[in-house]
Amino acid sequence: MRVPVWVVSALVLLLMLSSGARAAGDEPMLTPLVAEIIAPPYVVPGSDGKRHMVYELALTNITSGDVRFEKLAVVDPDSGKVLAVLGPDELAQRVTPGASRGKETRVLSAYQFAVIFLHIPLPEGMAAPARITHEITARLAVIDAEVTMTLGDSTVVSTPPVVLGAPLRGKGYAAGDGCCDSIRHVRALLAIDGKFHLAQRFAIDWEQIDETNTLVAGDTKIPANYHIYGKPILAVADGTVVATRNDLQDQVPGALPENLPLDEADGNFVVLDIGSGHFVNYAHMRPGSVKVKLGDKVRRGEQLGEVGNTGNSQAPHLHLHVMDGVSPLASNGLPYVFDSFTIPAVDEAGTEDFDKAEATGSPLTLTPRVPPRTLENVLPLDLSIVDWPQ
Ligand SMILES: [Zn+2]
After folding, report:
1. 382 CB contacts (<8 Å, ≥6 apart)?
2. Do residue 168 and residue 273 come from a single domain?
């Protein structure tokens, strides 16, 4: 009698899994999932007073049946402490088949690949771990059973995030699509030249409110009607200009441009090499406004250009992120903090509220921070309103 291959595989798997905990001496074991961390996480101090780890766990289902994720625990393997536990509902928002943002589900089909986009706020008072691993509980269709596997070991980067000065001048800047649970930047995992890159992991799209809390007044199709349009963009640190362009025209606000070539995504832009393997990308600058050229040395606070709406942009804003290489897309996104700023309010109504304000001119729904909080050496989190020091 011929036994189908999948039955043999399932039986082998069942035997491996039913043999219980990992054998003494860490002998090799077959596993139904293969896991890899895209880039080791940093510990990032946020404007909420907490420390955050933001990273991605890539998983491949190597079985011939569905894998349904039930639980994921992030564990410090050295202390055995559990840093976070994600249940079915949260996994359904974070397991992303094919790394295709917006297609989240907690079921991986046979032989399918997914990325779990993770945001782990560290428990207060707990020392930052030197390493992490993941205990994943999933139901495997091939054996019709639930199993728990330990996968995805990684070191945690012990270097603190780079400290930056203000990228803009004045008050009322809204930190759009920021860390850590908005998805447009944090999940912008791109396959470029055969490798995954998440350059925008900690990117912020800066816009500006006026005294009525609107982002735009008048016709929303006119770039200059957005309050941030034309505002000076500043060097956040001493550095050298290692990439730039200045020849693109503004897009009409309201929609992202179609069929934009990849090399026009950042519009008019500047990349600054600020040393220690850190590069700062400033994107979507106003046509003709870039004041620096390739090879120029700039000082912190020096003007680089003005905010515009060039490239892959649907409303004037400054896209800013820090990365580990010159390419704004084909590099790894690094965290950063600003040395001083004040948060007078936060848009707790979320991205939808921000998008509506950008598209229609409605005011942001802001929750004031009373008194306004002046913060040092932290990352402004998503939808914070930021006043820069005078
Ligand atoms: Zn952006």
Report:
1. 175, 176, 177, 178, 179, 180, 181, 182, 351
2. yes
Please work out, in degrees rounded to the nearest 5, the angle formed at the alpha carbon of residue 270 by the alpha carbons of 281 and 252. 90
The tally of domains found in the chain comes to: 2
Q: In angstroms, what is the span from residue 185 Cα to ligand 1's centroid?
A: 6
Cα separation, 215 vs 227, whole angstroms: 6
Give the tens place of pLDDT for each residue, 224-249. 999 999 999 999 999 999 999 999 99
Question: Residue 44 Cα, ligand 1 centroid: separation in angstroms?
Answer: 19
173 Cα–ligand 1 center, Å: 14
In angstroms, what is the span from residue 204 Cα to ligand 1's centroid?
6
Q: Find the 118 Cα to ligand 1 centroid distance in Å.
A: 20
For residue 266, the CA-to-ligand 1 centroid distance in Å is: 9
What is the whole-number distance in angstroms between the Cα of residue 205 and the centre of ligand 1? 5
- What is the domain-level CATH number for residue 125? 2.60.40
Q: Which of 155, 171, 202 is the last residue of a domain?
A: 155
Q: So what's the pLDDT on residue 29?
A: 77
Using one digit for the tens of pLDDT, what is the confidence trace for 161-207? 999 999 999 999 999 999 999 999 999 999 999 999 999 999 999 99
- On whether both 227 and 306 belong to a single domain, the answer is yes
Classify residue 20 by its DSSP letter.
-
Cα 318 to averaged position of ligand 1 atoms, centre (Å): 8
How far is Cα 246 from Cα 241, in angstroms, rounded to an integer?
A: 13
| pLDDT tens readout for residues 39-72 | 999 999 999 999 999 999 999 999 999 999 999 9
CA of 374 from ligand 1 middle (Å) equals 25
Tell me the CA–centroid distance for residue 178 and ligand 1, in Å. 9
How many angstroms does the Cα of residue 309 sit away from the middle of ligand 1? 11
Ligand 1 mean position, distance from CA 68 (Å) = 33
Domain boundary, last residue among 121, 155, 189: 155
Helix residue ranges, H only, the chain:
5-18, 88-94, 351-360
By residue range, what is the domain housing residue 372?
162-387
Both 325 and 180 in a single domain?
Answer: yes
